[in-house]
Structure to design on (448 residues):
């Protein structure tokens, strides 16, 4: 009876922990600006990718990554991988980072942090199929910059006009997916994904040195919410008793999701200190117009070679048809994207009784992407390197089949360039995740 009570307590504990974290994650996703990047002005913002810290540490490889170890990780980038999950798995985490923006004339630094993800997975119907659901960011929008233009032909009548551009918000993805293994080598899976969030942007024109000037601001708000779909497949080919080759494919459909657009124009004056006075007038040019946003078709291909409980190495190639992104029946004039990731993981001795660092997972990776932005006839590219560790915890419930691990990842990279009158972003990001594996949900205890 005590063991039955313990088992029920474990179920209630994980469900409560997941639901509480999910509510915090939804609030965090809708309330915080999680980036300061002028490049997020384009499209739907800076794309995050469906990656947990343990995958980011390996450069973002995930499409061809399966279990390969005794420990379960949730790989929502390819839902076919859910079929390898054989214990209840809970993963939650946070991320933060420093960004340095620079051009030929100036440099600016910022820091942002937020809760990053909450995900749960557990086997269902058999030991070769599993269900997963959770929430994580899809894109981030956050920028604030100014340009100044001088008007007039002489010093006497010259006026400086400041054009201010700001943006905040982003999209969040809540998903539910299922993966199943067919036979000994093939796995299939699919995700139903609900994208939601706000993209809020404004542009202002003001005469900062003229207190009598009437300035104007146009705010554009896009409230997005709709269903999309992801799907994937993996084929695992044994090379010997402990080593396997996994080939993977994952894709996202070019779904149409709901969008509600509003545009508001505000007229205002500035006081002598440069602060904004009460609005003189507010005009709604467009209010709650219902329309659609057409997402692009995305393909991802990958492979990994892994030796059980020892090492894994792999690579991914991805491509996105972002030139087809349409918002409010308007093509966004973006570019198609492509990117590659290469990385791996090594564990000296996962079953070591002594020597803690023999049980630690050591990860490394590299990524390169051509983004969907092109400015001044130049493609904006991003590249970075990453390292990380999976730190196992010694659990008091080890004998009952409960395992915990902390995954920490550091990323260093850059986006854009200072050449050709452009802007370069250098970033340093830290991702922290906590993963729990517990098989007491599905164990039957014979004795009290």
């Amino acid at each position: 009876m005590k063991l039955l009570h313990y088992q029920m307590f474990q179920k209630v504990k994980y469900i409560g922990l997941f639901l509480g974290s999910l509510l915090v994650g939804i609030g965090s996703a809708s309330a915080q600006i999680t980036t300061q990047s002028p490049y997020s002005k384009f499209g739907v913002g800076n794309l995050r990718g469906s990656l947990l810290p343990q995958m980011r540490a390996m450069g973002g490889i995930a499409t061809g990554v399966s279990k390969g170890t005794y420990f379960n990780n949730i790989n929502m980038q390819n839902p076919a991988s859910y079929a390898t999950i054989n214990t209840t798995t809970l993963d939650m985490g946070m991320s933060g980072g420093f960004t340095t923006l620079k051009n030929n004339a100036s440099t600016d630094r910022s820091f942002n942090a937020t809760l990053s993800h909450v995900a749960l997975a557990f086997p269902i119907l058999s030991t070769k199929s599993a269900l997963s659901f959770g929430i994580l960011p899809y894109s981030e929008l956050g920028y604030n910059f100014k340009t100044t233009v001088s008007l007039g032909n002489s010093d006497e009548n010259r006026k400086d006009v400041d054009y201010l551009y700001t943006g905040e918000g982003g999209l969040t993805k809540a998903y539910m997916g299922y993966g199943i293994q067919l036979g000994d080598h093939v796995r299939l899976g699919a995700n139903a994904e609900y994208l939601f969030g706000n993209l809020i942007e404004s542009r202002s024109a003001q005469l900062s040195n003229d207190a009598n000037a009437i300035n104007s601001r146009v705010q554009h708000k896009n409230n997005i919410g709709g269903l999309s779909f992801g799907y994937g497949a993996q084929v695992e080919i044994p090379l010997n008793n402990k080593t396997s080759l996994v080939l993977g494919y994952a894709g996202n459909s070019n779904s149409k999701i709901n969008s509600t657009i509003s545009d508001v124009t505000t007229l205002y004056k500035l006081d002598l200190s440069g602060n904004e006075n009460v609005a003189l007038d507010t005009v709604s040019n467009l209010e709650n117009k219902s329309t659609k946003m057409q997402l692009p078709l995305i393909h991802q291909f990958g492979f990994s070679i892994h030796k059980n409980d020892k090492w894994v190495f792999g690579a991914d190639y991805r491509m996105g048809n972002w030139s087809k992104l349409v918002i409010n029946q308007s093509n966004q004039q973006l570019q198609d994207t492509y990117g590659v990731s290469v990385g791996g993981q090594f564990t000296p001795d996962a079953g070591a009784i002594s020597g803690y660092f023999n049980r630690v997972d050591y990860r490394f990776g590299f990524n390169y992407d051509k983004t969907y932005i092109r400015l001044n006839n130049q493609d904006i590219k991003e590249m970075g390197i990453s390292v990380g560790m999976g730190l196992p915890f010694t659990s008091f419930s080890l004998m009952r089949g409960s395992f915990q691990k902390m995954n920490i990842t550091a990323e260093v990279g850059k986006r854009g360039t200072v050449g050709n009158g452009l802007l370069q972003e250098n970033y340093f990001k830290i991702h922290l995740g906590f993963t729990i594996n517990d098989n007491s949900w599905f164990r039957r205890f014979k004795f009290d």
User: Anything to note?
Assistant: Confidence is low (pLDDT under 50) at residues 1-12, 21-32, 395-399. The radius of gyration is 25 Å. The CA atoms of residues 7 and 443 lie 9 Å apart.
